[in-house]
Amino acid sequence: AGVHRGMLNGARYILDEWGLRALLRTVPKDYGIRLVGHSLGAGIVTMIGALLAREEEFKGRDLQVTGFGMPACVSPELSERLRPFVTAVVHREDAVPRLSFTNLVRLSEDFNREEEREWCKKQLAEDVNCVWDHLGFSRKEAQQKEEEEAGDAQGAAGAAE
């Protein structure tokens, strides 16, 4: 099943090198195991949970993983197998959980449609104007200042010749 290799390597490192697996072996069998992470950490604890769930000594244990803002890190097939013990929490428009190579390709295709290009240009123009408003002067004033500075630089270069 497809997984994010970097997150899988991080999970293995934490289990083996940092000793999480050894620590969990000391926890009484009737205690639940709760793994919680945010963003990259959410992906890593998901991998840790998936690895533990496969191991004989952890089968049947009360294992729950909760990831906040988890990036896409497993295939749809593996996601279905993890569903019983992994909960992903997504905050409204958080882009991180929705980013994947497939979604980026789709997004690129969508934004290549004429109506989307026009919408994007309009949104970007509005965003730029908001930045200028936040800075306390208009974009037009900033452009005038840039033109004046460019003229001053050209004048200085001409005088130096």
UniProtKB/TrEMBL annotation:
Give me the ranges of the annotated region Disordered.
Answer: 141-161
Alphabetized UniProt keyword annotations: Membrane, Transmembrane, Transmembrane helix
Q: Which InterPro entries match?
A: AB_hydrolase_fold, Fungal_lipase-type
Q: Name one GO biological process term.
A: lipid metabolic process
Q: Which residues form a coiled coil?
A: none
The record places domain Fungal lipase-type at: 3-102
Low complexity bias: start-end ranges: 152-161
Q: Which residues cross the membrane?
A: 31-53
Question: Which Pfam family, any one of them, does this sequence belong to?
Answer: Lipase_3
Question: What is this protein called in UniProt?
Answer: Fungal lipase-type domain-containing protein
